[in-house]
C-alpha cells in the first residue's frame, strides 16, 4: 500500500535545479530511508512533503506528490491541515522551553483541544509511543530543557505523534546524539512504523541498513536507486 506517490517532481532554487524528475511510491507503515552525499537534495525532498519549501524565496516546484491520493503540491488553501497529517523531527532536539507536558500537548492545544482528561490521555499515549513515559511520568511539570538530548529527541517525537499524523519526517534525527541514544531512537523508529509512515534522512548507511525497509539513493537531485533495503545491503 502506498502512502505517498511522487510524480515527476522537480524543484528549483531560483535557476538551480535541486530535484530532478523524481517519481517514487513510498509505502505505508514502512520506514523509507533517503540517503546520498551532502547536497544531493535529501532535505529539500523531505521539505516537499510538508510544503516547508514554501517558506523559501525563489523556490519553485513542478510535478506532484499525492498523500493518500490527495495532492500536496496543489493543495488549495490552508496548509495547517496538511501539516497536521505530516509531522517533522529535526536533527537537533528542539523542545520548547516549557514543561514536558506542555510540549506534548502543544499541537492539540493549537487544534483547540481543552478537555483536561483528553489532554492527559494524549500525553500518556504519545510519551508511551515515544518510549519516554516510564522515564518522565513523575516529572511531567519539569522543564523539557532539563532532559538529556536523547530524551529531548524522544520528547520531540512524542510532540509530533501526539496529533496522530499519517507521515513522520525525520531529518537526521540521531546525528546530534550519542551512540546509546541513537540506538534507542532507532529501536523506537521500528515500533513507530506500526502506526505511521516514516521517512528518514540519514547520511549513515549502517543506520539505513539497520532500520529502514526501503532505501532511496539520491545523487545530484535524482533518485538513482529505490529498492527494499534488504536487497540493497546484502551481498549478491
Ligand atoms: P545542514 O545540512 O547543516 O542542515 P542546511 O540544511 O541549512 O544545513 O543547508 C544544506 C545545504 O544547503 C548547504 O550546502 C547550504 O549551503 C545550502 N543552503 C542552505 N540554505 C541556503 C540558502 N538560503 N541559499 C543557498 N544555499 C543554502
Ligand atoms: P542534502 O540534504 O542532501 O544535503 P539539500 O537538500 O540541503 O541536500 O540541498 C540540495 C541542493 O540545494 C544543494 O545544492 C543546496 O546548496 C541547495 N539548497 C538547499 N537549500 C537551499 C536554499 N534554501 N536556497 C538555495 N539553495 C538551497
TrEMBL record:
Pfam families: ABC_tran. GO terms for cellular component: membrane. SMART domains: AAA. Residues 4-236 form the ABC transporter domain. One of its GO terms (molecular function) is ATP hydrolysis activity. InterPro entries: AAA+_ATPase, ABC_transporter-like_ATP-bd, ABC_transporter-like_CS, P-loop_NTPase, PstB-like. It comes from the Bacteria. GO terms for biological process: phosphate ion transmembrane transport. Keywords: ATP-binding, Cell inner membrane, Cell membrane, Membrane, Nucleotide-binding, Phosphate transport, Translocase, Transport. Belongs to the ABC transporter superfamily. Drug exporter-2 (TC 3.A.1.117) family. PANTHER family: ABC TRANSPORTER I FAMILY MEMBER 17, IRON EXPORT ATP-BINDING PROTEIN FETA-RELATED. This is Phosphate ABC transporter ATP-binding protein. It comes from Winslowiella iniecta. The gene is pstB.
Amino acid at each position: 500500500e502506498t502512502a505517498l506517490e511522487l510524480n515527476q517532481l522537480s524543484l528549483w532554487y531560483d535557476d538551480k535545479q535541486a530535484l530532478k524528475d523524481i517519481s517514487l511510491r513510498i509505502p505505508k507503515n514502512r520506514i523509507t530511508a533517503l540517503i546520498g552525499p551532502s547536497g544531493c537534495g535529501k532535505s529539500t525532498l523531505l521539505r516537499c512533503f510538508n510544503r516547508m519549501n514554501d517558506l523559501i524565496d525563489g523556490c519553485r516546484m513542478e510535478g506532484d506528490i499525492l498523500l493518500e491520493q490527495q495532492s500536496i503540491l496543489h493543495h488549495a488553501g490552508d496548509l495547517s491541515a496538511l501539516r497536521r497529517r505530516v509531522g517533522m523531527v529535526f536533527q537537533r532536539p528542539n523542545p520548547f522551553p516549557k514543561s514536558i507536558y506542555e510540549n506534548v500537548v502543544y499541537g492539540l492545544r493549537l487544534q483547540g483541544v481543552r478537555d483536561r482528561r483528553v489532554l492527559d490521555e494524549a500525553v500518556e499515549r504519545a510519551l508511551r509511543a515515544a518510549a519516554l513515559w516510564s522515564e518522565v511520568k513523575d516529572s511531567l511539570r519539569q522543564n523539557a530543557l532539563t532532559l538529556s538530548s536523547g530524551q529531548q529527541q524522544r520528547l520531540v517525537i512524542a510532540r509530533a505523534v501526539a496529533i496522530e499524523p499519517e507521515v513522520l519526517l525525520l531529518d537526521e534525527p540521531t546525528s546530534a546524539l550519542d551512540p546509546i541514544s541513537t540506538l534507542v531512537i532507532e529501536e523506537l523508529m521500528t515500533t513507530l512504523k506500526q502506526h505511521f509512515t516514516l521517512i528518514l534522512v540519514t547520511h549513515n548507511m549502517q543506520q539505513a541498513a539497520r532500520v529502514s525497509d526501503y532505501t532511496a539513493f539520491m545523487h545530484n537531485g535524482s533518485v538513482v536507486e529505490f529498492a527494499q533495503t534488504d536487497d540493497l545491503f546484502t551481498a549478491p
